[in-house]
Design goal:
about 290 residues; 14 helices; about 0% strand; globular
């Protein structure tokens, strides 16, 4: 009973905001409004949830009087990822429930695993009644690319505490890596704002998963909704933000073509990793050749 009272007093605002978001996204609206009529309410509600969570869960009283506009500006890089995660998370929720997972299991996978492609693969493997060992091995191989991403960001985290690095790494994804790559190069690598961006992204993924799980029994096939295009569109948007000169365009096109070629020859689980390594090596070679050190 004591635990329930503590949760009600401290996290009731979070639950209330979550209900507002679900109502907005489901189309039923909140106080007569829907996401179509007032899309800014979605982002405002997500921001309030993340701020309230940071206050309560991590005991950060300094956030109570923080300037909301400054926090909105700090979290604004997460908006493209949120717009992609909501529909993709919805698609995952539908697929997971139709694969035999319960609503609780579906949402818990988004909270604990938090790996979009791995979760989609795992859901399809669950539907085929594949052994758990095979599912774990497959998702492990798929997520090996995180070794490259974490190695690229590690130099910017040297002044962070171990607990901050662990929290940041847990929620690092392909999309958030793209965001932080740009931020860290500009010197914007403060732990709290970086972790908050990751948390907002994961929260949008969890909310999308929850809505998909709740409506999964009513939708058997998500392909008519063209939700599969949301993920490539999001990656294209993140890529455009990182292109600064013609060499970047050449390397990006080279990486994409190499990935397709490697996939065509059968390395369907390793194509992204191999293509990334080769394209990055070519880019580093070009920079060394064009700008030799004296």
């Amino acid at each position: 009973m004591v635990i329930l009272v503590f949760f009600e007093r401290n996290f009731q605002p979070i639950c209330s905001r979550s209900c507002q978001i679900i109502s907005l996204l489901s189309g039923s609206g909140y106080h007569g409004q829907s996401i179509k009529s007032n899309p800014s309410r979605l982002f405002s509600s997500l921001f309030d949830i993340i701020l309230e969570f940071l206050r309560k869960a991590f005991c950060l009283p300094m956030l109570v009087d923080s300037n909301k506009s400054s926090w909105l500006k700090a979290l604004s890089p997460a908006v493209p990822v949120m717009m992609g995660y909501l529909p993709i998370g919805f698609a995952y929720g539908v697929l997971a429930v139709n694969a035999g997972l319960s609503i609780l299991q579906t949402v818990l996978m988004s909270v604990i695993v938090y790996a979009g492609s791995a979760q989609l693969i795992a859901a399809s493997l669950f539907a085929q009644m594949i052994q758990p060992v095979s599912i774990i091995a497959t998702t492990f191989i798929v997520n090996l690319r995180h070794l490259l991403m974490s190695a690229a960001l590690a130099p910017y985290l040297q002044h962070w505490r171990n607990s901050e690095v662990a929290a940041f790494s847990f929620e690092l994804t392909d999309e958030s890596f793209g965001i932080h790559s740009l931020r860290f190069e500009r010197g914007e690598n403060k732990p709290l704002s970086s972790i908050a961006i990751n948390l907002v992204c994961q929260l949008s993924w969890v909310i999308g998963s929850l809505i998909g799980a709740l409506t999964g029994n009513m939708i058997e096939d998500v392909r008519p909704f063209a939700l599969d295009y949301a993920l490539p569109a999001m990656f294209i948007a993140l890529l455009v933000l990182q292109i600064r000169n013609r060499r970047h365009v050449i390397i990006a096109v080279l990486g994409g073509l190499l990935s397709l070629v490697i996939w065509f020859f059968g390395a369907t689980q390793w194509n992204v990793i191999f293509a990334t390594i080769i394209a990055a090596a070519v880019g580093a070679g070009l920079d060394t050749w064009l700008h030799p050190q004296s």
